[in-house]
Request: fold
Amino acid sequence: MDTQGIQYAVEDFWSRRDGQKSKLVDGGKSGGAARGNGHMKALEALVKSVFIECGIPEECIKTGQPYLPGYYRVRKQWDLVVKYKGVLVAAFEFKSQVGSVAKNFNNRFEEALGSATDIEAAQRKNEESPFGQVPPWLGYVFILQETTETEKEGRPTRAMFPTDAAFQGLSYNQRYQEMIRRFIGERVYDAGWFITTKRADGDITYLEPLATATASVLRAAIEGRVKVVKAMLKE
Reply:
């Protein structure tokens, strides 16, 4: 996952998204290209390539929204699942936010937290643990379009009781970063990758603003996970 490969993947993200939007009957007015599928494929391919480089056979890596068992619901679709010799090596979610961030931030948070909580509960509470002795290992990949909406300082937050002061004044970009930072820090997800991107005058650029969720950190985390699983399997 070098800078050239990431740049290509981000450009592919925009290209696929634009293509999906143009194919929608309403031109994407009711939810935009977010209703389409496949615009994260190049990013999926980069993550998949790391597992292959670590010695996981390609046939053990499933994409196309494979299912895993849950606890609060019978099953849940993930975006990339790695199963090697009966062991769940990893399960990944790939999500994006382009426009309408104020309307969708809470939905993205609740989806991410719910998916992780459900699979963790399945490991602990089901009569027969579906994943054996190795706990699930989860990854979260997120790409955010930078706009004036995502970068402006947040308004004061109010609730019936005092809120965490760390969130005061954060932009939506910073709130996404804090969400993923806490997910990783609290082991809700074991690894993450956070990308911001913008288009200006035909140029597409990207940044990795969160130190704990860059491509290089994700690669190191995947390498470590694969080593643990292979050691357990005595390989």
User: Anything to note?
Assistant: The longest helix spans residues 101-125. Helices lie at 3-23, 41-53, 101-125, 148-151, 172-185, 215-232. The longest strand covers residues 87-97.
